[in-house]
Amino acid sequence: MSSSTSLTQTPSYEGLEQALEQLARAIAGAQGALLGGRFRDLEACVLEQQDLCSKIERLIRTKSVWEANCARESARNVRRQNLIFAAALRRMRRHTDMLRNLISGLALSYRPTAGIGQVI
After folding, report:
1. pTM of the full predicted structure?
2. Distance CA 77, CA 82 (A)
3. Residue-level pLDDT, tens digit, the chain, 120 residues
């Protein structure tokens, strides 16, 4: 009976692998939401990422060094994906900052007091 339970149980590092895969899917969902302008979905994805990161941290603390090392390649892939997402966020932030500054800089009723011919 113990042999059947050992066959159905997965190695403990697979829980970490699965959590990392879930995090990768959450990052991909956040990228899609960001680029699609679905900001409520983006917020939900970020909250999911925070929960998954907490879960991964708990899993890593309870695993042996060998078990944590087994998931190292998955962690590298998730990190690469997260770096791409961070770059997209930075680029989007610069774009929205420029738009905000442009909109807040001049009033819609702005009229110059002097024409170009009068200034020169």
Report:
1. 0.66
2. 9
3. 444 433 344 445 568 889 999 999 999 999 999 889 898 999 999 999 999 999 998 888 887 767 667 788 888 999 999 999 999 888 888 877 887 777 776 655 655 565 555 555
Residues in the chain: 120
Angle at 119 between CA 115 and CA 120, to 5 degrees: 120
Three-state DSSP at 98 gives helix
Residue 8 structure tokens: 């159905």
Long-range contacts: 62-68, Cβ < 8 Å, 24+? 63/12, 63/13, 63/16, 67/11, 67/12, 67/13, 67/16, 68/13, 68/16
